[in-house]
Amino acid sequence: MNRKYTHWPARWITALGLIAVLVANASLSLAQVAGPVQVLVETVREDVFRDKAEALGTLRANESVELTVNVTETITALHFEDGQRVEANQVLVEMTSAEESAQLQEEQTNVREAKRQLDRIQRLVTAGTASESVLDERQRDYDAAQARLIAVRSRLKDRVVKAPFAGQVGLRNISAGALVRPGDLITTLTDDTRMKLDFTVPAVFLPSLQRALPIVATTRAYREREFRGQVVSIDNQVDPVTRAIAVRAILPNDEQLLRQGMLMQITLFMNERRGLVISEESLLPEGRTNYVMVASPRDDQLIAEKRQVTVASRRRGEVEISQGLAIGERVITHGAFRVQDGSPVLVNAGAGEAAALVKPPTSNP
């Protein structure tokens, strides 16, 4: 099959080249006639940045216990109501103890009598009218009487339920006159003056985890409230399945709004530092690389300079720059897509502010 090749005459190629040169010169002339592009700029500033991790956690009371009994006995008196706040060592429940009270009086009498006999024999031994063996026997009787008294007091104590710490009792599960057995639940007691918040974070944050890190917690029950606390402890091992580590924080609960078992959304702040900050709209992303247009003063005018920057972290509307900028420099926030590297720009500002922008930025001492 025959193919025909078309050869462009040399004069045509020369003509096309001249046309391209004329178009480029015309564009440059138009740009010069149009003058500098008006832009908006911002000054690179230094601000506090913190890394953050988000998690879900469950609230636990600072102290929590289920109150039960140790003996099988009948309830004679209840000294609390549902949801009541009680003090430490306050008596909550009394059970039948008539027999133990009588035994207590009997043993107290036996102890007093044993003590009286011991003192009498000690005087006789001192006078030489009694033997040491009789003294040892009376000492044994006195010690045995004291032991029996302690045992009776212990049994009597088992028939009274006291609050081990100050807090709020839950719902009452028994009534006066009920027969209870060991392990029967009477009520719950929680110390909710402050709450424990347990949650997990990925192990990649382990180098930044430490005590006293601040947290902010929210819950759907109180949508408009933020509860602030801090980390108090970190687990000693990473979960081999989830590759996460357990963290515990403490939240003050002076208003008693938080309850045990509530689900909380947590923001944990770590690695606080100072860094250079610009607005996110100043970035010009090209693939995986970010650029900004810097308005640099040159010969009494501002020249756009395209500069590559490294973004360290982001937050709402702002980015932290770790490389590529210096504090006090001005970056273009609006109009960056209409200027080219090396082209003059005009800051849309008042006369005094525009004159100040032309001056080189001064570094902080």
TrEMBL record:
Family assignment from sequence similarity: Belongs to the membrane fusion protein (MFP) (TC 8.A.1) family.
Residue stretches spanning the membrane: none
Keywords: Coiled coil, Transport
SUPFAM superfamilies per record: HlyD-like secretion proteins
Keyword Zinc: no
Residues of the Multidrug resistance protein MdtA-like barrel-sandwich hybrid domain: 64-185
NCBIfam families: RND_mfp
GO MF assignments: efflux transmembrane transporter activity
CC terms in the record's Gene Ontology section: efflux pump complex
Coiled coil ranges: 97-124
Domain called Multidrug resistance protein MdtA-like C-terminal permuted SH3: residue spans: 305-336
Record flagged with keyword Ribonucleoprotein: no
Major localisation: other
Positions of the CusB-like beta-barrel domain: 199-268
UniProt subcellular location: Cell envelope
Protein name: Efflux RND transporter periplasmic adaptor subunit
